[in-house]
């Protein structure tokens, strides 16, 4: 064998190895993903909820201490189960509570 053919084989082997490594790293990662929404310094994990026949989109925002609020977008507007929305803003403030405003800001609801 000549030096040229050995070098060609060596380069071909390197190219094949690089392609194999490239394919291995370009695959989608396995496992799961997590969405965290930070509102005024508090982190909320975000989980989609099945929207009922009235709701268009719905999400559960859960703080680390377990406090959870459901935010939903319906045909007639956005709703949240937090006390601020229920007792202070319902029917008064169209912008909604901080949970609704944050969900709108990141595009979870419109």
Would you give an account of this structure?
With 110 residues, the chain is α+β, with helices and mostly antiparallel strands. The protein has a domain at 35-105. 35% of the residues lie in helices and 30% in strands. It has 3 helices and 5 strands. The chain has helices at 3-26, 83-89, 98-105, and strands spanning 35-39, 42-49, 55-63, 68-74, 77-80. It has a 5-stranded antiparallel sheet with strand order 1-2-3-4-5, with helices on one face. A hairpin with a 2-residue loop joins β1 (35-39) and β2. The longest helix is centred in the N-terminal third of the chain and has 24 residues, at 3-26. The chain is globular and about 50 Å long. The chain starts with a helix and ends in a 5-residue tail after the last helix. The mean pLDDT is 79.
- Strand percentage lies at 25-35%
N-to-C SSE string, H for helix and E for strand: HEEEEEHH
Largest sheet: 5 strands, antiparallel
* Average pLDDT taken over every residue: 79
What is the rounded distance between the termini? 69 Å
Q: How many runs of DSSP E, i.e. beta strands?
A: 5
Alpha-carbon Rg, integer = 26 Å
In helices, the fraction of residues equals 25-40%
- As laid out across the biggest beta sheet, the strand order is 1-2-3-4-5
